[in-house]
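Rotation project, supervised by the postdoc (A.L.). Task for the rotation student: set up a whole-complex structure prediction and record inputs and outputs verbatim in this book. Inputs entered:
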Amino acid sequence: MGTFHQCPGSGMVDRSDEQDEGRSGDVSSQLRQWPVQMHLVSPVAPYYQKADVLLAADCVAYALGDFHAEHLKGKALGIACPKLDQQQTVYLEKVKAWVDQAKINTLTVMIMEVPCCMGLLSMAQRAVQEADRDVPIKAFTVSLKGEILSEQWV
Amino acid sequence: MPDIGHRPVVEVIENHPRVGEILRDHDIACVDCTEASCMLKDVVSIHNLEPEQAEELARQVAAVLGVDPDEVEMEVSSGPTRSEPSPVIRILNDEHLTIRRLVGLTPAMAEQVDPATVSDRDLLHGAVEFIRAYADRYHHAKEEEELFSLFDQNLEIFQVMRLDHEMARGEVRAIEEATESQDRAAVAEHLSAYHDLLEEHISKEDDVLYPWIDRQLTDHQVGTLFARFRQIENEMAEIRRRSEEFLQKVEQALAVRDGAGRVSGQTPKTN
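Outputs recorded:
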């Protein structure tokens, strides 16, 4: 496995020499909605009403082998990249609308371990602070190798 | 020795005191618990031991009992290990801190307060009202009626906690009766009993029961409980405000007495 060379968010890592057969057989999708990208979603769509919502950084679903079964199952989804996406104030307003208008039950934020990903969690926390309602936020941090590094209520 | 895991831990300790010492070495204080009705097999899951630690504990206990370690059945906790409590458990922990502020004042009250005086009777009635309003209505509306009700009420651990709550209510009634009859010794006796009961009870909940419950709660349940707790807080905001006001008043009054022996600026009246 290679190492970070420059920015941890874009530095090259090569694990192609690691072999793992993984799980065999069909693994069904747990996605129950469309769209999922934060610029495209309506925060008051029916599937967000009183839901447990997962806000995931784009890379998380690729890094985690069991993303669908263990993390997406039973949740409504929004995805975003805090490093590259434009006009992220829209995201802040949409998360506030989740809390106040869709009256979501919980907000789970899943980010990668790279420093730039923290911005997504910070934005979510700020949105909940600015909202009229209060909801629990849980944060997961995922390693570049696809492991859960931390899981905690924030 | 069949079904050793299904025997009450107190019984095992009574027959084999060394088991109590082993549990204490693993930071499990069953030997100090006056009401421990848990089964030996539950001890591991309730205290959230890692599988390796559970295995070592079973090996040590088996050696004392003279049985094969496989015969000492231990249930390892299910669910992820979380470093921080969930928001709902944090709310209940914080309320325990508020209740502990009053409990912490009871030794000084037992020593200084004389129910023969009107002002001290008011103080004692205020303490009784605080416990009934803040602990019994505000806190237990969340803890007993919302959180506990998600679990099987036949589990020993909940029966023990509810028994503690009933015993505490009995002590509060006794404090009230002793206040009415102006029996200073009885007031002191029941304040002291309430203090000891609550200190142990809150420790059991904060250190053992709540972490165990937290490991069983799904994220969805945490969200639902959180919303319900906020609703209760809104509905009972006046209880919270009055309770905080009372605590500040009593803390100040007893602090002044420490120096002057009597509430500052008040002339004791005897009826």
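Student's summary: The longest strand of chain A covers residues 106-112.
Supervisor addendum: The radius of gyration of chain A is 16 Å.
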